[in-house]
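Minutes, project check-in
Item: structure for the 343-residue chain
Input as provided by the requester:
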Amino acid sequence: MPDATPLERLIAGLDAADRYDQADAARLLGELGRRETVGPLVRYVTENRYYCKAAGIHALARIGDASVCPTLRGLVDEPNVVDDWFWVDCRAVRAAAAVALLALGDDSRAGYLGDLAGRNDDVFFCFCGPAILRLPDDLPATRDLKARITVEAVGEPAARGVRHSDPARVALKAEVFGLLATPQACEALRDLASFHSRYVRGQAAVSLLRADPSEKHVRLVEAMADGDPADFACLKASFALATAGRRDRVALIAQAAGGLDDPFDLAVAVECLGLLEDGEQTGVVERQALHADPYVRQCAVEALERIGGPAAVPVARQRLSDDSPRVRLQAAKLLAAQDGEGR
């Protein structure tokens, strides 16, 4: 689409050949937040038959146009996704739509979320837990659902053992614990700091300092940042320290972003620099926008959007012709977020 505007490129991404590219386009449209994209997103979440369309549901909630509530109510009742109980696809889409309704001030389908909680379903406690806890407390139904998300209900590692060893679910539990921020939640996070998965350990470090950046917890996360056997966990721990005020850790993350060999770990380092929005690190991020690995390039473009500066727009324009569809989408989003359509 050489003559399309960046926004038109993002909307066209909803019809990409790959379902995950479609979901990425939906996610980026939600971050962009433009109401003129509501129509294409409604079509996407209505017609698409895969669970990853939950990204489009989240996007509609983020844009905040309550006119989509009838569509979302319909998706709770009939998600148009294969009902495969084991893989949770159907329940995840229905729950995402119910949470989106709450975000838009509509509690008409909150009962579905309550039913999931009553069945001890991780779709409620893990997949939707962080989103529910971040909702405003305006609706009684939202307050009631939040009250059901406790450390004990989610599964406290120290007391009962984590219900699942799947790192993705346990990492979500760690995120929930960080949002609960109770002494019991911090105890659970200290336990998860030694979990077998690097992804869980990294999230535990971030959540722990978000919940309680006390000296005891800073020391624990420092030990992880300096001694964890996995670069991923070290980076996440350093990021947690930086967000808690230890700016000396930013230079260490920047050093990793310029020299790690593993593309995934390198991408995480670049992502952390973007989240920290440190303008002094623009150079190392800009260089990684030319990395051989597409995920590194994607994270670099996203980080440049967060950091800003004169390099962001020229790099994004260059990446519009990238070999990777997701890098092209990320570049289009950066440009669409600029003045007008980024021309």
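Outcome recorded: Confidence is low (pLDDT under 50) at residues 156-163.
No further action items on this chain.
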